[in-house]
Design brief:
Elements (H helix, E strand, L loop, with lengths): L1 H20 L5 H23 L14 H21 L6 H16 L6 H7 L7 H32 L10 H4 L11 H34 L7 H46 L3
Helix pairs in contact: 1-2, 1-3, 3-4, 3-6, 3-9, 4-6, 5-6, 5-8, 6-9, 8-9
Keywords: Membrane, Transmembrane, Transmembrane helix
Length: 273
C-alpha cells in the first residue's frame, strides 16, 4: 500500500511539473492539470495496490517501469526548464539550453527525426520558434536514448528479469494471454519484433502523419510551452518505451526457451537406460 501511494504521488508530480514551474498558467488550465494528475495518481494507486494484475506491465519486474518513469520525468523536467528560461533565464536554464542546441544541431540532418520534427511546423513559424523545437527535440531524443542504453546495460549486467527471482508471466504481462493458440515463445518473439519495428518507425511516422493531416486540421505551431513540452516528450518517450517493451518480451521468450531446454535435459537424464 505504501509503495502504491508513493508511485501515485510520483505520477502526480510528473503531470503537474510543467504547470507548476512555468509562469502564466491560467486558473482553468491549472484545474485541468490537477484533475488529470489526480486521475493518473488514482489509476496508478489502484493498479499497484490491487492483488490481481490490471493494465500495467512488468510491475513486479523492476527496474523496467522505474526506468520508463525516470525517462519521461527527466524529459518533461528538462524541457520545462528550457521553456522557463525564455521567461526567467538563469545559468542552469542557459546551460541546459546550450546542451540541447548542440545535440539538436548534431542530429539535425536530412531525414532525421529532429529534422522531420522541425519540418512539421508551420511554414510561417519564426526561426526562433523553430530553434526552440529543435533544442527540445534534441534533448528529448538524447534522454530517451540514454535511458534505453541504461535498460540494456541493466538487462545484461543483472540478468533481468531472472535476477528478481521467479518471473510470473501472468502478473507481469496481464494483457498477454498465454492460453490463446500458438506457441508462447513464438508469440512473444513476434510481439517483440512488432514493438521494435514500431519503436524504430514512430519518430519518423508521427511528424509525417501530422504534416499530412495539417491540410485538414490546420498547421501545427506548438506555440504554447506546455503543448511543446508534452508533444515532444511523447514523441521521444513512446518509441523508447516500445523499444524497451520489445527487448523485454524477447528476453522473456529466451527465458522460457531456456527453461524448457533445462526441463527436457532433466527429464532425459532421469529416464532409465
Amino acid at each position: 500500500m505504501t509503495g502504491a501511494l508513493v508511485r501515485a504521488v510520483l505520477v502526480m508530480v510528473l503531470i503537474a511539473t510543467p504547470s507548476t514551474l512555468l509562469p502564466g498558467s491560467g486558473v482553468d488550465s491549472t484545474q485541468i492539470v490537477a484533475l488529470i494528475a489526480l486521475f493518473g495518481g488514482g489509476l496508478t494507486f489502484v493498479e499497484y495496490s490491487a492483488t490481481y494484475p490490471g493494465l500495467i506491465e512488468f510491475r513486479y519486474a523492476p527496474p523496467f517501469n522505474r526506468i520508463r518513469y525516470l525517462s519521461l520525468f527527466l524529459t518533461v523536467f528538462v524541457l520545462t526548464i528550457i521553456a522557463r528560461g525564455n521567461f526567467d533565464p538563469t545559468p542552469m536554464t542557459m546551460f541546459i539550453k546550450a546542451i540541447g542546441a548542440v545535440v539538436g544541431h548534431a542530429i539535425d540532418f536530412p531525414y532525421s527525426p529532429v529534422r522531420l520534427m522541425t519540418l512539421m511546423l508551420s511554414s510561417s513559424a519564426p526561426s526562433t520558434h523553430v530553434e526552440q523545437v529543435r533544442v527540445a527535440a534534441g534533448m528529448a531524443y538524447l534522454i530517451s536514448l540514454v535511458m534505453l542504453s541504461v535498460f540494456v546495460i541493466a538487462l545484461k549486467i543483472f540478468g533481468w528479469p531472472a535476477s528478481n527471482g521467479t518471473f510470473n508471466v501472468w502478473v507481469n504481462l496481464p494483457t498477454f494471454d498465454p492460453t490463446i493458440g500458438g506457441d508462447v515463445v513464438a508469440r512473444l518473439e513476434r510481439d517483440a519484433r512488432v514493438n521494435l519495428a514500431l519503436g524504430f518507425l514512430l519518430p519518423f511516422l508521427v511528424p509525417a502523419v501530422v504534416n499530412a493531416a495539417s491540410s485538414s486540421f490546420g498547421e501545427v505551431t506548438l506555440s504554447t510551452p506546455q503543448t511543446l513540452i508534452w508533444m515532444v516528450s511523447a514523441w521521444a518517450f513512446l518509441p523508447a518505451s516500445l523499444f524497451m517493451r520489445g527487448i523485454a518480451m524477447r528476453r522473456v521468450a529466451d527465458m522460457i526457451r531456456e527453461k524448457r531446454r533445462q526441463n527436457d535435459a532433466l527429464q532425459s537424464h532421469m529416464q532409465p537406460a
